[in-house]
Amino acid sequence: MRMGHTLLWKLEFILVLYSLLHSGLTQDAVLTIRPKRSTYFIGEVLTFHCDMNEGRRGDWEYKFIKDGQTFHDYYTNPTFNLNHLYKEDRGVYQCCGRNKGSNTKCSNTVSIHVSADKPKSKLTAGTTTVTLRCSVDQSDGWKYEWFRRTSTIAEYRINDGENGEIRVSQGGIYSCRGFRGEPAFYSDKSDEVTIKITLSTKVIVTQKPSWSQMFMGETITLTCEVQGGEGVQWEYQWRTPQSQTSWRNYKDWTFTASISGGYSCRSRPQDDSYSLIKWSEALRLSVLAHKLKAELKMTKSPVEGTVTLKCSVKSSSSGWRFFWFRGEKSSKLLTTQEAVFLSNGQISVSQEGVYRCRGGRGEPVYHTEFSDPVIIGVEKPKAKLTAGTTTVSVGDEVTLICSVEKSDGWKYEWFRRTSTISEYRKYDGENGEIRVSEGGIYSCRGFRGKPAFYSDTSNEVTITITQPVLRVSGWWLSPGSSVTLSCEVEHESAGWSFYWYKAVPDLSHKSASYSYELLPASSNGTADNSYIIHGQTHTAGYVCRAGRGEPHVYTLYSQPHFVWSGDLHPSASLSVSPDRVQHFTSDSVSLTCEGNSAEWRVGSFLLPDLLSFCSDWGTMNGSTCHVQKIQSSNAVFWCESGSAFSNAVNITGHNDDLILLSPVHPVTEGHSLTLGCKLRTENLLSKVVFYQNDTLIQNDSRVEMIIPAVSKSHEGFYKCQSSGKESPQSWLTVKCQ
């Protein structure tokens, strides 16, 4: 930079020396520029004017020189314009003139600097007052334009003169830009500055109704009042103990009381979201979560034959009205014909009956809970329900008797419910005795008088409809053996026919759901309560039911009962991983179904009688049921498709430290068999002793027992011992080839 200035100075000196040598005159011509700037920018306009300071202007011709080279030769106009400056226009300028007497003289030199970068205005905000300043660095002669916008108002120009400093009283997003010259040359706009104004106006919160204590569920209105804000359209925001509301155009906020704490508001003009009034002082609400209960007290009245009732609410706040009722479930308010209203919370009555009251206030009305009832005139009796029997067969009936002791004139209402049906009134007349054939939970109560006076409801009586029980001759199928089903009916009597069904899995439900198909020769029922099935080789499920009478009335279906086969079949099979009968309770087990089906479920029968499915104790993923931790149990598992059952396997879970490793499927005669033993700690075993049917069969240094060719004689219970511990025993099945 220093070298550049030195070269420029030398060039100016040479030009001056040149003009003196050639003219022989002193330099008194003057070159001026308008406007005069320290720096010019591309696009600005510049005017040169050459004044010879001698004679008349018309006597002279003028030329203009840039960096020692003539760029505009002699002509009669002393003024020359550059109407659009470019970067290349920077340099040292001079003018020379000649008159008719051939006198020549040259002016001073003027350096012009043209910046390639368009300037950008800079906007700053004051720290103590809302003063904005706009400037264009490293240049002069600027005037300024000011702009404002908001999130809802488009940008517009502020008519605050052309100064570089203004004061603002409105919040908003401000920017500016500089301009100079004629025609005007504009700088780039400044970055935007967001101004938020805190207004000196105050807001206060008022409450209506002005109760000191509120209850959850009551309706309250808070009002945000701007003091001295007349003539301005305001919008409002509320702050609660847990959150803030959005801005709204109305000052009243009506809501349901639910949270204790401070509530405050603030406001801003609707057309200026950047000018805010500070948050008001918080109005504290006390909201009780529990619902009040009215209290009803009875006192003797000075008027003979009447009683005075007083209703009250224990509350520190006021505004309560009271509502009176007579009768157990009456929703009709007492009238002046039924009571004398002494004051808001006090009445006088002469009729016997059950009275209640409750308080209420506000709009809409917030009600307390009903008071405890007060009985006028008599002690409230309780109905008594008796049943001839609590167990009844299908088609039979049982007699229920309802009574209110030591009084007369009663009629009765009857009620029934079940575990799945809520209580409802049975319309069996109003007698004290009814006959029922449905199972369920029954109760009754008496009533008399008009309006009705009700006794307390009786104790409940459960009536049970008997369900037949299905039994089978054996759980596990043996080759060539038959299966005998027996159906037992409680309180068995003559006239029963028995119906036998095969259970068909219904996979539309992941839990225990079956449809039933009648077994052969069972469509008309059998007189005998047993049924024999020959040649059954696959796992199967069965149910039964009984019926009698004309028309036929049936019992419920029995619970399903199963017979299991351990043989694998291509159409449906179950495999277990790890492949063994015994597992530690910490083990995970996978049960996989294979065969002619795309959809499966895995069933389990926890001995002796609990039926469940994978969805109850595992996770079904495609055709595999994953059990994260096996339970301490002895259970049978199998697969079900929409038409078939797979083979069944017996799996046991143990808390013991040692288990026997034996295959989960039957072993075929002639095949080899390896039995092992496993510690829960996974430590290696040094010596294992094996037993069959409690008889020692191997006692040496080997840790496994290998039977090269299994025969039927190897079938039985096996267990192992090692390190002073003994495993549970498991059954090994051997099947024929």
TrEMBL record:
GO biological process: cell surface receptor signaling pathway; immune response
SMART domains associated with the record: IG, IGc2
UniProt superkingdom: Eukaryota
Protein name: Ig-like domain-containing protein
UniProt organism field: Oryzias javanicus (Javanese ricefish)
GO MF annotations in UniProt: transmembrane signaling receptor activity
Domain (Ig-like): residue spans on this chain: 108-194, 201-275, 306-358, 381-464, 468-546
Record's GO cellular component terms: external side of plasma membrane
SUPFAM superfamilies: Immunoglobulin
N-terminal signal peptide: 1-26
Keywords associated with the record: Disulfide bond, Signal
